[in-house]
TrEMBL record:
HAMAP family associated with the record: Ribokinase
Pathway in which the depicted protein is active: Carbohydrate metabolism; D-ribose degradation; D-ribose 5-phosphate from beta-D-ribopyranose: step 2/2
Keyword set includes Transmembrane helix: no
EC number: 2.7.1.15
Gene Ontology terms describing biological process: D-ribose catabolic process
Protein name: Ribokinase
GO cellular component, one term: cytosol
């Protein structure tokens, strides 16, 4: 491996209950199966990056001094991620409470815990790192400090702006790539009337918008790229976006052209939706390559046309 990605961000233990549907406000729903899974946007993305192959993956994370940390560390180690762990004696390991419906939708509430203990001084040396991948489940000031340090060191910076929040112009100016879904685009770009306007408002060299079952689009150096999604029967969409981000950055660290990287990330994300859990659902390199090699599964001309029409770019 000649390329290295550093993921800095969150790690949670997910408490997942399956139910017929996600409860509405004030509604109690009787659930069924209950399980715990290692999760957290940062940790999920690190596992996806490591399993994508071709790039050595490191992660900076903060955990509590409790038993919830153990399965998270085990999952990251099993995936081959090199850990830079901050251990907080006062805050608990982050947790997420997830209701997963029978139609594969979910509702998630996160208690960040130790994730909020990450400080600018915790960033490890960036020697040999090609990409720094960030999210927003850590303090915003820390995220911006990490991005500034990476920019100063000549390291490319990607931010998955999730959970959505308004971002300062100073942070956007430090990014090489911004990855958002439609809801996050609305918040970051100030409620644009359409996708084209949202992309135009963001002064970042590369912006990628994921569109769920439709696929994704990207703007890079003024050029628009479209990538339809793979057709699947979803079981659990948890970590689908994280799988996309980690796979994408692993490919970018190997200097893969963006269009090909979007295709691989879409394939990995599709496979993740067919399995339960967060990190437990993320495919490895061989599984993604097998899907990409199956010409009958690749999105066709009709899918491209439908995505282009829906985006109305």
């Amino acid at each position: 491996m000649t390329s290295t990605v550093l993921v800095a961000g969150s790690a949670n233990l997910d408490f997942v209950v399956r139910a017929a549907h996600v409860p509405a406000p004030g509604e109690t729903v009787l659930g069924r199966e209950f399980r715990t899974f290692p999760g957290g946007k940062g940790a999920n993305q690190a596992v996806a990056c490591a399993r994508a192959g071709g790039a050595a993956t490191q992660m900076l994370l903060a955990l509590g001094a409790d038993d919830f940390a153990k399965p998270i560390e085990a999952s990251l180690n099993d995936a081959g991620v090199t850990l830079h762990t901050v251990r907080d004696a006062l805050l608990p390991t982050g947790t997420a409470f997830i209701c997963l419906s029978d139609d594969a939708e979910n509702a998630i509430t996160v208690a960040p815990g130790a994730n909020m203990a990450l400080q600018p001084t915790h960033l490890p040396p960036l020697d040999g790192v090609q990409w720094l991948l960030l999210q927003l489940e850590s303090p915003l000031a820390t995220v911006q400090a990490y991005a500034a340090s990476a920019r100063a060191a000549g390291v490319k910076v990607a931010l998955n702006a999730a959970p959505a929040q308004v971002l300062p112009a100073e942070l956007l100016a430090l990014l090489d790539m911004l990855i958002v879904n439609e809801g996050e685009l609305a918040v970051v770009a100030g409620n644009p009337p359409d996708l084209a306007s949202g992309l135009a408002r963001l002064d970042v060299p590369c912006v990628i918008v994921t569109l769920g079952a439709r696929g994704c689009l990207a703007r890079i150096d003024g050029q628009i790229l479209l990538q339809p999604a793979f057709s699947i029967s979803p079981l659990d969409t948890t970590a689908a976006g994280d799988t996309f981000c980690g796979t994408l950055i692993a490919r970018m660290a190997q200097h893969t052209p963006l269009q090909q990287a979007l295709l691989a990330a879409s394939a990995a994300s599709a496979l993740a939706c067919t399995r339960l859990g967060a990190q437990s659902s993320i495919p490895d390199h061989a599984e993604v390559e097998a899907l990409l090699a199956d010409a009958s599964r690749l999105p066709g001309t009709d899918a491209h046309a439908a995505l282009a029409a829906w985006c109305a770019l």
